[in-house]
Amino acid sequence: MYAQEVDTYIAELEKEKRIPLDQIRTLVHEVVPEVVESIKWRMPTFSLPGGGDIIHMAAFKKHIGLYPLPKAIEEFQEALAPYHTSKGAIQFPLGSALPLDVIERIIQFRLNVLLEKKH
Predict the structure, then answer these.
(1) Residues 6+ apart with CB under 8 A from 51
(2) Smallest Cα–Cα separation from 3: which of 63, 43, 31?
(3) Is 69 left (phi over 0), alpha (psi -120 to 50) or beta?
(4) Domain range holding 62?
(5) How many domains does the chain have?
(6) 59: how many CB neighbours lie within 10 A of its CB?
(7) Rounded to an integer, what distance in angstroms lies between the CA atom of residue 30 and that of residue 27?
(8) Residue 18 sits in a domain of what CATH number?
(9) Is the whole-model pTM more than 0.90?
């Protein structure tokens, strides 16, 4: 489900920031068709219906931030080595192609973690 607040967040950005955010958004919807969008902590957030945030994303001056929670960053540490990461964040420099295959695997990982918690 596409949320108007997320549409507005993305639409207000410069093209170099809109394109990667749209790519991530599309990817989330492909992996999790039932995903619910909202704005949390002033960032587009993708959640499972009934609760559980999959990821958050945001545009900054020099990078796109992806926030999949610490466990996902640990799990994909090797694949994320070319990027600046912290405990809960990944920074993708503006002007660089996003590693969509890695992001897709992170989304799937987060989805699996949330589904395991439900059972």
Answers:
(1) none
(2) 43
(3) left
(4) 4-118
(5) 1
(6) 20
(7) 5
(8) 3.90.1150.200
(9) yes
